[in-house]
Design a protein that fits this description.
- By secondary structure, the protein is α/β, with parallel strands linked by helices.
- It has 3 domains: 4-101, 3-Layer(aba) Sandwich (Rossmann fold), CATH 3.40.50; 115-339, Dihydropteroate synthase-like (TIM Barrel, Alpha-Beta Barrel), CATH 3.20.20; 358-475, no CATH class.
- The protein has helices spanning 15-29, 48-54, 75-81, 95-101, 128-141, 159-168, 180-188, 223-234, 252-265, 276-279, 286-300, 317-334, 358-367, 396-405, 413-432, 470-475; strands at 4-10, 31-37, 63-66, 85-87, 115-120, 145-149, 173-176, 193-197, 211-214, 239-241, 270-271, 273-274, 304-307, 374-377, 382-386, 389-393.
- It is elongated.
- Residues 456-487 have low confidence and may be disordered.
């Protein structure tokens, strides 16, 4: 079998580290390699167009691997090279995983079995526009049904108009009420599911002509729940069963046991779990709880969950459930651990931090000829590297004082603000155990907000003075440019 011959493209500063990495990795991963060191200081500043003008490809090359920061359309480069071209990882320390240890997901990943109902709480107290705006956002986040949460007491006279407005907006709607008059008005306006039905309103359920969710009169007592199920089944009312999840300290373990019992006693009956009793009533970020509860639902074949987003730490619950239902379905269906599969759910901390090599930082400082600042962070210290300069400290203020003491020549107000912003990100990364990459947003999973490149002009986009060699310009595109020499 012919071994792959991979041609790696890099810049001058990253070349030594890349060569050391490939010397060990090539034999282990089973490929031969060659390296092009292009006339640019920092590989992160390349574009495909610039690479095409400078790249010479060995005749036996089977694939070209570009730095991970290389942005743009690769098609012209592929045509010119006559072989496949792709981008590798953004950090060359990730190359071992890139060439062997990273898992390959089944192409069916993303399928799910669990329906998400997102409740708008205390709807009678809200203005119509507020309800419609909330529903629009919940739908955009991935909710399958908008649940209208009603209040105890007199029927809400506006429930029918509210449901109709939501239906006109294109939403599927459920109604959460025990009041038969309120439910009837909602169903007539287009609600397709009723939460909740017990012994107090079950006699009216056959008149609604829609599916209902059956709940116990009292969570700890199932006798009336079984009676309601029997009565509605006899009347051919389609139903789901929700034994009611209870908060920690109020019977959580026993309530989970009831879900197991219901599934055993009704193996083919649809079920629902209201997960808000745990996410809303526990002092913890909601993502982990949502994954755990949807995992239980997946194993018990509970095909719908009711979630809320009232307290601030649950504000992204719908989006979390959208990812969680894919993850748990994949894990249960394929009998694999739900690990290293759905990075969007790892938000507070990263799954790993790449180790920094201080020797390479010293080498970088010795090689640099410009006075631009490169920032790095390990698990406790901040590092600032420039030409002949390597400063480090655990405190960003002390690090900045060190820089001032070094007599910098390019620290204007704008640059100082930029460094302060980046150092704050780096300190946050150290505190939480996240990977820091200069000019890149911290990875908050599904909550990540992309950032603009404030200090990273790209080769091929920077203005080149008339008569200048673009390879020379590419080395130092801007006095304030951030260049990431370790890719």
């Amino acid at each position: 079998m012919t071994r792959s011959q991979i041609h790696f493209v890099t810049g001058k500063l990253a070349a030594p580290a890349l060569e050391r990495t490939l010397l060990d990795l090539g034999p282990r991963a089973g490929f031969d390699y060659s390296i092009s060191v292009l006339p640019i200081t920092v590989a992160a500043l390349m574009t495909p167009q610039w690479i095409e003008r400078h790249l010479q490809v060995p005749s036996n090359t089977t694939e070209i691997l570009l730095p991970g920061y290389c942005h743009g359309d690769l098609q012209n480069l592929i045509t010119a090279a006559g072989c496949p071209v792709r981008c590798g990882p953004r950090d060359l320390r990730e190359l071992p995983e890139f060439f062997g240890t990273s898992s390959r997901l089944d192409p069916t990943y993303g399928q799910y079995d669990i329906q998400i109902l997102a409740e708008i709480n205390h709807a009678p107290r809200l203005a119509r526009d507020t309800i419609l705006k909330q529903a629009e956002q919940l739908g955009a986040d991935g909710a399958d049904l908008i649940d209208i949460g009603c209040d105890p007491g007199e029927p809400w006279n506006g429930v029918g108009d509210c449901v109709k407005a939501l239906r006109d907006q294109g939403h599927r709607v459920s109604i959460d009420s025990l009041n038969p008059k309120e439910i009837q008005a909602a169903v007539q306006a287009g609600a397709e599911l009723v939460l909740s039905v017990n012994s107090t309103n079950r006699d009216a359920a056959p008149d609604w002509g829609c599916e209902v969710v059956v709940i116990p009169d009292e969570p700890a007592k199932l006798r009336e729940l079984y009676g309601t199920i029997e009565q509605l089944n006899s009347a051919n009312v389609p139903l789901r069963i929700d034994p009611i999840l209870e908060p920690i300290g109020y019977g959580l373990a026993k309530s989970l046991q009831r879900y197991l019992q219901i599934r055993s006693d009704f193996p083919e009956q649809e079920m629902l779990m209201g997960i808000g009793n745990l996410t809303e009533l526990t002092d913890v970020d909601s993502a982990g709880i949502n994954v755990l509860l949807l995992g239980i639902c997946q194993e018990l074949k509970i095909h719908s969950v009711l979630t809320t987003q009232v307290i601030n730490w649950t504000r992204s619950s719908v989006r979390e459930c959208v990812l969680a239902r894919r993850l748990v379905r994949y894990a249960v269906h394929h009998q694999v651990l739900p690990k290293h599969v759905e990075p969007g759910l790892v938000m507070l901390r990263d799954d790993k931090q790449l180790a920094l090599n201080e020797g390479e930082l010293e080498e970088l400082a010795a090689q640099l000829r410009d006075h631009n600042y490169r920032l790095f962070a390990d698990n406790r210290r901040l590092h600032l590297v420039s030409s002949g300069l390597h400063l480090n400290d655990t405190d960003p203020f002390r690090l900045f004082d060190q820089l001032l003491s070094a007599g910098p020549r390019n620290l204007d107000a704008s640059h100082a603000f930029y460094l302060g912003y980046e150092l704050a990100k780096a300190k946050t990364a150290i505190t939480l155990g996240k990977q820091y990459e200069q000019d890149e947003p911290l990875d908050w999973g599904l909550l990540t907000v992309e950032e603009s490149y404030h200090r990273l002009p790209r080769t091929g986009t920077a203005t080149v003075p008339p008569g200048a060699d673009d390879s020379t310009t590419a080395k130092d595109p801007s006095q304030n440019a951030r260049e990431d020499a370790l890719e």
